[in-house]
Amino acid sequence: MRDERKTTAGRRDFLRKAGIGAIGAGATLATPLIAPAQADSETDDEKRKARYKETDHVKAYYRVNRYPG
Questions:
Q1: CB 62 within 8 A of CB 69
Q2: Can you tell which superkingdom this protein's organism belongs to (predicted)?
Q3: How far is CA 27 from the centre of its chain?
């Protein structure tokens, strides 16, 4: 009976430490989100240029997922 209590306590300690570690990791990942926004570096011509290209892999995606084409 005594061995079972030690195992249970070990699991609880592990889960507590894992939870604290997850909170610390979340705080570390959230730090860059607080940084100030930067200005856009594209010119007006670059913003208006065509970007979409219907390549072979895009056509295959549409075909496989049965999009009307």
A1: yes
A2: Bacteria
A3: 15
